[in-house]
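1st attempt posting a full record on here, be nice pls
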Amino acid sequence: MNLHELNTLPKLKLREELLRCCGSDAWVEKVLPFFPVEDLVELLEDAEEQWFKCTQAEWKEAFSHHPRIGDTDSLAKKFAATSEWAAGEQKAVSNAPRKIIEALAKGNQEYEKKFGYTFIVCATGLSAEEMLSMLEVRMQNSPEVEIEVAADEQSKITKLRIEKLLDTL
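the predicted structure (as tokens):
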């Protein structure tokens, strides 16, 4: 899809496409009035600005639209609308040693227990070992710090997905 095609989508279809980029209904509602957009740079700037106007609850809603790192079962089932993107973003995990995958699974459970939401990391270009290391480091964060870190990661993911939506990657 190109920018013109995105700009001319019916509102319901545009909403659906934006939700694929970021799973927060509030974010989508904040971004919709910016359409039609002039160019990709403007769209990415507006997307980021509106993301950081969302509440923590709205951030957590977006986080809930991500599978756990390495969770291929939920990728295929629960996250079908974004499974291709998420699989590409997490492709390094599929080739990781079993002990790393198991450590990620255990770490994800501990993270969710501590923070109450899925571990969010912009996984594109990262190895499974790097993701595990980031998870271990971030487990040391306070809840107040971690929500901000996770929101930054979601913002990166959203930007990448908008670019993927517009076939620019």
